[in-house]
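Course assignment 3, question 2. Fill in each field.
Student: A.L.
Task: Predict the tertiary structure for the chain below.
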Amino acid sequence: MNFIFAASPILVFVVLLLILRIKVQYVAAVTFAFTALIAIVKWSLPLAYLGSAVGKGSLITLDILLIIFGAIIFLNYLKKIGVISQLESLLSSLSLDRRIQAILLAWFFGSFIEGTSGFGTPALVVAPLLVGIGFPALMSILICLVANSTAVAFGAVGTPVRVGFAELAISGIPEKAALINLLAGGVVPLLIVAFVVGSDRKRRVKAFFECVPWALFAGLSFLLPYYFISYLGYEFPSIFGSAIGLGLAVVSIRFNFLIPKSVFRFQSDNPIILPELSGRFLKALKPYLLLLVILLGGKMLFSSWRIPFELGHGLVHSVQVFNPGFAFLTAILILNFKNAVPLSEFVILARSSFALIRKSAVAIFCVAAMTYTLVLTDLSSTEGMLQVIAKPLANQNLPFFSVFIGAFGSFLAGSATVSNLLLGPIQAQAAEQLGYSLPWILALQLVGAGVGNMIALPNLLAVAAAVGLHDQESHLLRRLILPCFLYLVLAAIIGQIIIN
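Answer field:
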C-alpha cells in the first residue's frame, strides 16, 4: 500500500500528460500539489519541511532561468545580426549530397546549438532550414529529432547535469556518460542517412551502404572529442565535440575523404552550383569562438566560487558564481560594440526570449519542489517516499533499465533536465540499496534522458508546428520509436557490461 501512495505522484503525472494531454506546466503544478498532500497526510511531513523544498525549487529554477534566458537571447541576437542564416547557408552549400547535408546540419550544427542553447532550439532552428533547402517536412522533423539526442546530455552548457543532478554527487558522471555515448552514439548518423534515403525505394539500399563509411567517420569526429573534453567539465562536451567534428567533416569533404562516389539527390531537386566558401566560415563562427573563450575563462576563474544557502531540515543550496548565462550576456555586449543593435530592439529580443522560458520555468520549479519534497520524506520518516519507490527498481537489472527510465522522463516532460530532477534521486536510491556505483547509474540516467529527447512530446509538437506539419504526431512517434529503442538498447547493454 505504501508503494501505491509513494508512486501515485508519478502516475498522476503520466495520466495528466499522456492520457488527458494537459500542458506540462499545469501537469507539473498539479503533481507538486498532489505530492505535497500525500507527503503531509501519509508521511506526516511538517509544513516547515515543505517550505524548505519550495525554497530549494526556487533557487534551482532561478539558476536554470538565467542559463536558458542567456542562451535563447544569444541565439536570437545572432539571428538578428544574420550570423545564424549565414552559417546555415554555408553548411548547406558544402555538398550537394543530401545525406551529407543532413549530417552536417542536424548532427553537427544541431548538436552545437544544443550544446549552447538546448531546450528544443536545435530542431526549431534546423528543421525549417532543411525544409527551406528542399527536404520534405516529415523527413526534416525525423532527422532533427533523431540527431538531437547525444548532445542533449550536456545541452545548454551542461544544464541537465548542473541542475538535473543538483545536490547529488556528480563527480565522474560526465566522463562516464560520454563514454557510453561514444560507444552507442555512432548509430545516430547512420539513422540520419536511413531517413534521408528511405523514401527512394530503388536506390535506398545502395545509397545507405555507400555512405556508411563517411557517416561512421562523422560520428567519431564528434564523439571522440566529446568524450575527451568531458574530463574538462560537463559544460563543454557537446559544444567542443560538435565544433571539432564539424571542422573534421569539412576537411574530409574538401579532400574527398570517405565521401560517397555518387551524389544522392531527391528526384525533385534542381541542379545547384556550389558557391565559393573560402574565408567565410571563420567570420561566421567568430561570435561562438568569443562565447567559448568567455565560458572557458569563467570556468577556470570562478568555478570554485559558491555561495551556500541553508534552507533548513538538511537542505543546502550552493549558488555557483559562474553561471553560463552571464557568459552569453557578456558575449552579446562585446559583439554589440561592432553590430550596434539599438536598445529598443534589445528590449524586444529580451521579451521574446523570456516568453519562451516562462512555461519551462513553471514546470522546472514544480518538478524541483516535488523532488525535494520526496527527498525530505526520507529525512522525516524511517522509510520515505523515495525509498519506497526505489524498492522495485533495486534489482540486478537496474543498469540495463536505467537508460529506459531516463528516456521515459524526457518523453513525458520534454526535457532531460526535468527527467534528471524527477528520476535521478529515485535511481540514486535504488543504486544505494543495491550497492551499485552511483556515478554509473546516474550516467545511464543522463544518457537515457538525452536519447529520450527523440520522442519527447513537447519537442515533437513544437518542431512539427515550426515546419507547418500538423496532425502527424502519432505517425512521427511511430517512426521515431524504433531508432530511440535501438539507441537505448545499445546504451543499456554497454551499461550492463561495464557495471557488472
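Instructor remarks: The chain has a mean pLDDT of 82. Residues 2-499 form one domain.
Grade: pending
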